[in-house]
Amino acid sequence: MIHKDMLIEEIIESYPNLIKPLQEMGVQCIVCGEPVWGTLEENIISKKLTNPDEIISRLNQVIRDEQSEVF
After folding, report:
1. In 3-state terms, what secondary structure has residue 31?
2. Of 15, 33, 55, 57, which shows the fewest CB atoms inside 10 Å?
3. What is the tens place of the pLDDT at every residue in 47-68?
4. Which stretches within the chain are classed as H helix?
């Protein structure tokens, strides 16, 4: 599952399906085809987003939803 201390690169490698949701929520995770460096929390703060817990919750919900579709 996703947590605030995860590196953006780790999130993208482990969950490439989260690229679009991250971008839709205003979290930049790819620049010129390469992952952005730093943690999810650092990226949220740098974008001046005020809802980190909501973003993390929504990302984890995407993962849960996709896992439930498999079973």
Report:
1. strand
2. 33
3. 999 889 999 999 999 999 988 8
4. 8-14, 19-24, 40-46, 52-70
Give me the amino acid identity at 37: W
The string of pLDDT tens digits covering residues 5-57 is 999 999 999 999 999 999 999 998 777 766 678 999 999 998 999 889 999 99
> Residue 33: what residue type?
G
Residue 25's φ and ψ, nearest 5 degrees, are -90, 0
C-beta pairs of 47-56 under 8 Å, 24+ apart in sequence? 49/25, 52/4, 55/25, 55/27, 56/2, 56/3, 56/4
What pLDDT sits at residue 28? 82
